[in-house]
Design brief:
Blueprint (H helix, E strand, L loop, with lengths): L1 H12 L4 H18 L1 H14 L5 H20 L1 H6 L2 H6 L1 E4 L1 H5 L6 E4 L6 H9 L5 E4 L5 H11 L6 E4 L5 H8 L4 E3 L10 E6 L2 E6 L1 H9 L2 E9 L6 E5 L11 H18 L23
Parallel strand pairs: 1-9, 2-5, 2-8, 3-4
Antiparallel strand pairs: 6-7, 8-9
Length: 289
């Protein structure tokens, strides 16, 4: 019952002007900062690991700013879930669209790291093409079903659970369906290895180069930035990676991590620091969390 009430309140929010939603999101983020002690601790550890030379005052400010951005990302999803195509697109400015247009109808991996605006970019893409992506089932069945429906509300989107493996993704990629893929969370090292991320040995899946090799797909990164105030969003498509994959999965995955590092440095407050990114440690190293 509480979940349904919460969803109803979320639904009501989407009628509000965008500038009000931004204010609510910032406030919600600060409230989470005060109340979510465990997530605050996780984010603080991540920031310390990635920015060891940053002074404590600056890191503390970055931590608060991240919670505000995270709060915005949560609240502004109400627009993505219930607002019209016209309203959503009116808030999104797109750069590098020529890189997106150049690969339409071809096998392409849209590399989308975990920035707080990633679902905004996903919503825009789903209004242009029929794409594929993966999802994790939520513990709450009602919430899980609702999120699934919202992710496929535009076009003929295909979403597969992680448990289904790569086979349906490979098939769809070979058919020319773009794959909206988020490869930068700790999923242990069953399908990957330890690759440096900001100098920290980090469990990283090597799926991107392996998928590219299996399907002939090109890799086109796409990043969405939340703009200040009520300016909306900036979705940027980058040029398809050349000479990729090289046949060296480790080197190719390191290239991916280095690209993500560069984008994080451009807007560190918008990267998803609340996840236990360094949960899996190399043999012999103790847990960071």
């Amino acid at each position: 019952m509480l979940t349904r009430i919460g969803v109803f309140l979320f639904w009501l929010m989407h009628f509000l002007p965008f500038r009000i939603l931004v204010w609510i999101g910032n406030t919600f983020g600060l409230l989470l900062y005060l109340l979510a002690a465990e997530r605050r601790r996780v984010a603080a550890i991540n920031l310390h690991m990635c920015f060891p030379d940053m002074n404590d005052t600056r890191r503390a400010r970055l931590l608060r700013d991240h919670f505000k951005m995270f709060g915005r990302g949560v609240i502004e999803r109400t627009i993505l879930w219930w607002s019209s195509r016209a309203r959503i697109c009116s808030l999104i400015r797109v750069e590098g669209i020529e890189h997106f247009d150049a690969v339409k109808g071809k096998p392409v991996i849209l590399l989308t790291p975990h920035f707080v605006g990633m679902d905004v970019g996903g919503s825009w893409i789903s209004q242009q093409v029929d794409a594929i992506s993966v999802y994790s089932t939520q513990k709450n069945r009602y919430l899980s079903e609702m999120l699934f429906k919202k992710r496929i509300r535009f076009g003929n989107q295909r979403i597969y659970s992680r448990q289904q493996g790569l086979r349906p993704i490979v098939k769809a990629l070979r058919e020319g369906c773009p794959f909206f893929y988020l490869p930068d969370q700790d999923q242990a090292v069953k399908d990957g290895t330890f690759i440096s991320f900001f100098g920290v040995p980090t469990a990283t899946i090597t799926t991107v180069p392996r998928l590219a090799a299996m399907t002939g797909a090109v890799v086109v990164p796409c990043i969405t930035r939340l703009l200040p105030g009520s300016a909306g969003y900036l979705l940027t498509f980058y040029q398809a990676w050349e000479n990729y994959p090289t046949g060296d999965d480790i080197a190719d995955t390191r290239r991916m991590n280095e690209f993500i590092e560069q984008r994080v440095l451009e807007m560190p407050e918008q990267y998803f620091w609340l996840h236990k990114r360094f949960k899996t440690r190399p043999p012999g190293e103790k847990s960071l969390y």
